[in-house]
């Protein structure tokens, strides 16, 4: 079941100290700005809830995990301020994932592109299916994955990010992502994936919540400057999207 809502959907289910946050959008689970803002606020809210120990982040349906930011909104950007605000959407989500105080399990059932790769990278532990190929295609439209790069590089290293970014037109399969450290395990079916997500989340939820909070802090040590860094990166992308190169590339994509 997938949503048909133009601005997407976001639901949180809480059970046994586990909060499952599920997002959806009819365009391959992509993110309009409004949905990114809702996800940011929900992560902060769940992070402040003392009755929750662990978060599962997932998307609707059995196909794409996330197609990145809304293409329609990207095409509509007309000035620097709009550009910076648009790219700040994923910056805000990544910073909320980083600082929310809860360990986040990523459940990746299918292909993920651009900002979706950033979301997966900002999770603390990621489980995926064989269909969960990844791609950073930003170069093909004249921009770059600047906002999500710190999160991606933190997970797969500079060489992995370089390979993914420079080979912008090709998919890397789920086993490549596992080998690089983005995914912990890869499963043949969604059923197997969900079983493992359930087992892991229940185990984590049974541990000392204070230990989990301290581990979250330890894992993200050294990222304290990301509020400023990701805002700067959003400004870079906001400028690039207004370039003649990108405007022409986006026109070709539209056609």
Write the layout of secondary structure elements.
Elements (H helix, E strand, L loop, with lengths): L8 E7 L2 E7 L8 H15 L6 E6 L11 H6 L3 H20 L3 E6 L3 E2 L1 H8 L2 E5 L4 E2 L13 H18 L7 H7 L4 E3 L2 H16 L3 H11 L6 H15 L3 H11 L1
Parallel strand pairs: 2-3, 3-4, 4-6, 5-7, 6-8
Antiparallel strand pairs: 1-2
Helix pairs in contact: 1-3, 3-4, 3-9, 4-5
What does this protein look like?
With 255 residues, the protein is an alpha/beta fold. It has one domain (9-209, 223-254): 2-enoyl-CoA Hydratase, Chain A, domain 1 (Alpha-Beta Complex), CATH 3.90.226. Helix content is 50%, strand content 15%. It contains ten helices and eight strands. A hairpin with a 2-residue loop joins strand 1 (9-15) and strand 2 (18-24). The protein is globular and about 55 Å long. The two termini are 29 Å apart.
Amount of beta strand: 5-15%
> What is the helical fraction, as a range of percent?
40-55%
What are the low-pLDDT stretches, counting only 5+ consecutive residues below 50? none
Please compute the radius of gyration using only Cα atoms: 17 Å
CATH C-level class is Alpha Beta
Topology pattern, helix = H, strand = E: EEHEHHEEHEEHHEHHHH
Mean pLDDT, all residues: 96
Structural class: alpha/beta
Shape: globular
Q: Assign the CATH superfamily.
A: 2-enoyl-CoA Hydratase, Chain A, domain 1
Question: Counting H and I runs of at least 4 residues, what is the number of helices?
Answer: 10
Sheet with most strands: 6 strands, mixed
**CATH structural fold name:** 2-enoyl-CoA Hydratase, Chain A, domain 1
The count of DSSP E runs of length 2 or more, i.e. the number of strands, is 8
Terminal residue distance: 29 Å
The CATH architecture designation is Alpha-Beta Complex
Number of domains: 1
Strand order of the largest sheet: 1-2-3-4-6-8
């Amino acid at each position: 079941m997938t949503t048909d809502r133009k601005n997407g959907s976001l639901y949180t289910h809480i059970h046994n100290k586990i909060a499952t946050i599920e997002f959806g959008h009819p365009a391959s689970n992509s993110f309009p700005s409004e949905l990114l803002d809702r996800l940011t606020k929900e992560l902060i809210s769940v992070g402040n809830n003392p009755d929750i120990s662990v978060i599962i982040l997932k998307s609707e349906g059995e196909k794409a995990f996330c197609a990145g930011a809304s293409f329609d909104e990207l095409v509509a950007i007309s000035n620097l301020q709009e550009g910076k605000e648009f790219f700040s959407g994923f910056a805000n989500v990544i910073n909320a994932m980083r600082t929310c105080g809860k360990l986040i399990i990523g459940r990746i059932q299918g292909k993920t592109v651009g900002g979706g790769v950033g979301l997966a990278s900002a999770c603390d532990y990621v489980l995926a299916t064989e269909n969960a190929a990844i791609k950073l295609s930003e170069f093909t439209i004249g921009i770059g994955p600047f906002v999500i790069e710190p999160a991606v590089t933190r997970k797969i290293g500079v060489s992995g990010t370089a390979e993914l970014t420079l080979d912008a037109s090709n998919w890397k399969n789920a086993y490549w992502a596992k080998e690089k450290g983005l995914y912990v395990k890869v499963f043949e079916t969604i059923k197997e994936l969900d079983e493992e997500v359930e087992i892991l989340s229940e185990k984590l939820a049974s541990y000392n919540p204070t230990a989990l909070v301290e581990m979250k802090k330890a894992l993200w040590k050294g990222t304290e400057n990301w509020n400023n860094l990701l805002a700067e990166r959003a400004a870079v992308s906001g400028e690039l999207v207004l370039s003649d190169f990108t405007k022409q590339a986006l026109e070709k994509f539209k056609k």
